Amino acid sequence: MSGRECCENPPALRSSSGNGCVLQLGSFNTYISGPSTSKLAVLLVSDVYGYEAPNLRMLADKVAAAGYYVVVPDFFYGDPYTMEKTLSIWIQSHGTAKGFEDAKQGCCSSQR
């Protein structure tokens, strides 16, 4: 669990940030960066702020620049944590089971 310091300076979420694009991958909206022809892939998992966080997308773009195909799924299904929400309640409603099962299906369907 992260300390409260992680929530003191939340990012401004922007769906338009980054050099990549957002596509539907399995049941997720997914930020994708890098060459789709790459034999190497990286799955980046966000913190509570979700896949629209600009620094996460910058990291994905940097990894992609090294030749990797990078996918960043929206494991929160459009509901990232915001300061208006109580963190403990938000965490309770965002368990790992659904995201894990959906990620398995998405990975299997995207194998080249």
UniProtKB/TrEMBL annotation:
It comes from the Eukaryota. Pfam families: DLH (PF01738). One of its GO terms (molecular function) is hydrolase activity. InterPro entries: AB_hydrolase_fold, Dienelactn_hydro. Residues 28-80 form the Dienelactone hydrolase domain. SUPFAM superfamilies: alpha/beta-Hydrolases. PANTHER family: DIENELACTONE HYDROLASE, ENDO-1,31,4-BETA-D-GLUCANASE-LIKE ISOFORM X1. This is Dienelactone hydrolase domain-containing protein.
